[in-house]
Design a protein that fits this description.
Length: about 140
């Protein structure tokens, strides 16, 4: 009886059914002297048959870590905080310049070329995934 109850609890757990994204091409821009903010880019692929909603991000490297987007309004670029970003089943969402990105605000330290930082994505089903992001200084990247 105890094994049956334990099996039912495990099967009912949201962790047992959570869809996970495949994240690649991760990089975080080194911040320029005097800047306390930077941004991170990635490619988020959903190989599952379930839609995935990213509802947030966390990093120990900054006081605040947020999902953002850039959009154009005529010749003005507007940055907007996004409450969530959907990655539909079988789809890929690219986070990059002039689109979605992860904003790191009030950095705890200077981001230096060649380092790595961890960013954790949070999903609407209560799960999360941590990923390593390579710090890249565009002036030093070859």
């Amino acid at each position: 009886m105890k094994k049956t109850i334990a099996s039912l609890l495990i099967a009912a757990s949201p962790l047992a059914f959570s869809a996970q994204l495949e994240i690649s091409k991760t990089y975080l821009k080194a911040n320029t002297p005097g800047s306390d903010n930077t941004l991170a880019y990635m490619v988020a692929e959903n190989p599952t048959d379930e839609d995935v909603r990213i509802i947030g991000a966390e990093s120990t490297a900054s006081e605040f870590t947020e999902l953002h987007s850039h959009t154009m309004d005529g010749d003005r670029m507007i940055m907007r905080h996004e409450k969530y970003i959907d990655v539909d089943a079988g789809q890929t969402v690219r986070f990059g310049p002039h689109g979605y990105h992860i904003m790191l605000i009030n950095l705890e330290k200077r981001m230096k070329h060649g380092e790595q930082e961890t960013i954790t994505l949070k999903y609407n089903d209560g799960t999360s995934q941590a990923f390593q992001f390579n710090v890249i200084d565009p002036r030093k990247a070859g």
